[in-house]
Target: 2-dehydro-3-deoxy-phosphogluconate aldolase
Amino acid sequence: MVSNAYGERFRQAVAETGVIAIVRGVPSTHVIELGQALYAGGVRVMEVTLNTPDAHRSIAALCQHFFGRMQIGAGTVLSASEAREAIAFGASFLVAPHVDPVVVEAGLAEGVPVLPGALTPSEIAAALRAGAPMVKVFPANRGGTAYLRQVQAVAPGLPLVAVGGVTLANVEGFFVAGAKAVGLGSSLVDREAIKDGNYSVITCRAKAFIEAYRRSRIR
Model:
C-alpha cells in the first residue's frame, strides 16, 4: 500500500484550491502556456488524460516546467502498463475512470496516489479499501449535488472529487454537498480559447472556481 505520506501530500495539494484541471485533447505545443494560465489563476493540480495525443510528452514537459510548483498527473489510466508508463514520464498521481485494483496496485507500488472513478457507495468503498487517497465521483452530474449530499450523510468526510458536468453555475453546490474538490475539463480548459491564444479567459475561470471553493469553506 502507498505510504500515507504520498496520499497526504496529494490531499494537501488538492485542498489548497479544491480544483483539479483536466487537460484533454490539447496539443503538446500548447500545454506550457495552458499550464501558465492555470497557475496564474491559482490551480496547483493538473491532469493530462492519456487519450490526448502526445500525452506523455505533455506530462514530461509540464513536470519539468512546473517542478516543485504543481502536481502533474495522468488521467484515463486503463491498465497497469499505462500506469507504469505515465509514472516513468513523471506523473505524480493517476486518475482512472473506474475502480480497477490492477491499476490502483500499479500506482501504489511506485508510491504514486491513484484516484479511481466510482459512483455507487459500494464502488467508493472498494476504491478506498484499495488504498485510494481520494475517489473521483463520476459522472457527478448524474445524481447531482443531492446524491453527493446523501452519500456524505451516510459516511461523513469521504474524500470525494466531483467530476463530470461541474460548471461555475453549480460548483459551489458540489462543495457545500461535501465534495473535497472538483475535476474540471471543458468548463475550465476552454479549447477554443486555447486555439485563439486567449489564455486570460482560462486564468479568469480558474480564479472564479477557486473563489467558489473558498466561499464554501467559510459557510
